[in-house]
Amino acid sequence: MLTSYNSKIFVAGTDEAGRGCLAGPVTAAAVILPANFRNKMLNDSKILNLKIRNELRGCIEGEAICYGVAHVFMEEIDTINILNASILAMHRAIEKLAQAPQHIIVDGNRFKPFCDIPYECIIKGDGKFLSIAAASVLAKTYRDEYMEKIHEEFPMYNWKKNKGYPTREHREAIREFGPTRFHRKSFKLLPEQLTIDF
């Protein structure tokens, strides 16, 4: 069962979604939960189904002390690379918190200091601590919502289903129709790709 990191201070958990996608933004969330927050369903968003993720999103938004969500879009990803874009998205999400955190816990092993606030990177933290799991759910649901919206403009890529990840169907659509303005130019969009004209 997931636990609180430290119930005596304001701890922000942060996580991102969409790092490995070929299209769309990388999205991060930061969440500060109350010390007494408990939810048996909450876990790493990747192992939850759509219905539970959406239920949890409402619960988190309703019960969190505060939360923030931020997208970093394709142009910035292509300019600063996906690792830096992921960290930037987390920083922007933390900036949106109504309560300044006293400590930050980050899913994964890479982060950059934010406003001199102490932080800790935790491998698979979204399966260990409630606030990181909550951030993973918000990042995933907000990003999925964005991809479903742009799917309406480019239905041939089926982003509603694959959310921009490099599925065979997505790559075949890129091969047939070419890349869109939502694709990440710095990513290898096709396995045999050398260059793509934009």
Structure description:
The mean pLDDT is about 95. The chain is built from 6 helices and 5 strands. It has a 5-stranded mixed sheet with strand order 3-2-1-4-5, sandwiched between helices. Helices cover about 35% and strands about 15% of the residues. The chain has a domain at about 10-145: 2-Layer Sandwich (Nucleotidyltransferase, domain 5). By secondary structure, it is an alpha/beta fold. Helix 1 crosses helix 4 and helix 2 (about 75-80) crosses helix 3.
Q: Strands, helices and their partners?
A:
Layout: E1 11-17, E2 26-32, H1 50-63, E3 66-72, H2 74-80, H3 82-95, E4 103-107, E5 119-122, H4 130-151, H5 159-162, H6 168-177
Parallel strand pairs: 1-4, 4-5
Antiparallel strand pairs: 1-2, 2-3
Helix pairs in contact: 1-4, 2-3
Features:
alpha/beta, Nucleotidyltransferase, domain 5, 5 strands, 15% strand
Kindly state the percentage of residues in helix.
25-40%
Q: In CATH, what is the homologous superfamily of the domain at 11-143?
A: Ribonuclease H-like superfamily/Ribonuclease H
- Determine Rg (CA atoms, Å): 17 Å
Sheet having the most strands: 5 strands, mixed
- What is the CATH topology descriptor of the domain at 11-143? Nucleotidyltransferase, domain 5
What order do the strands of the largest sheet run in, or round the barrel if closed?
3-2-1-4-5
The portion of residues forming beta strands comes to 15-25%
Q: How would you briefly describe this protein structure?
A:
With 198 residues, this protein is an alpha/beta fold. It is 36% helix and 15% strand.
